[in-house]
Amino acid sequence: MKQLTSQIHAFGKALMMPISVIAAAGIFLGLAAAIITGDAFAQMQVPQLIIGFIRKVAGALFVNLPVFFAVAGAIGLAKAEKPTAAFAAVIGYTAMNVGINATLAAKGITAATTTPQALQQAGLDQTTAMMTSAEYIEMLGVFTYNMSVPGGVIAGLATVALHNRFYTQQLPTAISFFGGRRFVPIVTVVRLPMIGVLLAMIWPTIGNGIAWISQMIGKSGQYGAFLLGAFERILIPTGLHHNPQ
User: Smallest Cα–Cα separation from 92: which of 140, 145, 60, 136?
Assistant: First the structure.
C-alpha cells in the first residue's frame, strides 16, 4: 500500500509539469486580451501581429496538452531510463490514436463526415452538429476522439507500464540490438493501437459520464462546490490535488 501511495504521489508531482504549461498559456492569453483596448489599437499592425503570435503560441500549448500529460506521466512513473519512457510515450500516444482512427473509419466516421456542415446535412440542427463535431479532433496528424488530457494520461500510464516491464528485456543474439530500452518503443507500437481500438468502443460512454458529472456539479450550487472541494482535499495525500506546495 505504501509503494502504491508513493507511485501515485510521484505521478501527481510529474503532472505538475504540464499543469505549469496551462498556467503559462493562460497568462499569455490574459496578456493578449489585456493589451487590446479600443478601435484605434486595432489599426496598429505591429501590435496586432505580436498579439496574434502570442495567441498562436498559447493555442499550440493548449492543443498539445494531451501529449505533454502523456510524457509527464511516463517520466513520473518510470523506474529507470526516463528519457526512453518519455520518447515511448509520444509514440504510444500517436499509436493509440491510430487505433482509434482505424475503428472510427470502420464505422464510417471521418474528418469529412464530422464537420458541422456535413452533420447538418445529415439532419442535425446547428447546435447539435457543432457539439457533435467538437467530439472529434486531429492530433499529431491523426483524426481521433477529442479525449483531451484524459487521453494523454491513459497513453502515458499504458506506456510506462510497458516500459517498466520491458526496458531490461533481452533478445536472442541475432536481434539483440533491439533489446533493452530499444525494445520499449517497439512493444509500445504493437500494444497501444489495441488500447486505442478498445477506447474507441467505450469512449462515448466515458465522455457522456464525464459530461454528466460536470453538469451535475454545475447545477448543484453550493453542494456541487462542496463536493468539488471535498474531492480535492481527498487527493492531497496522493499529490494529485494540483497544489504546487
Answer: 140
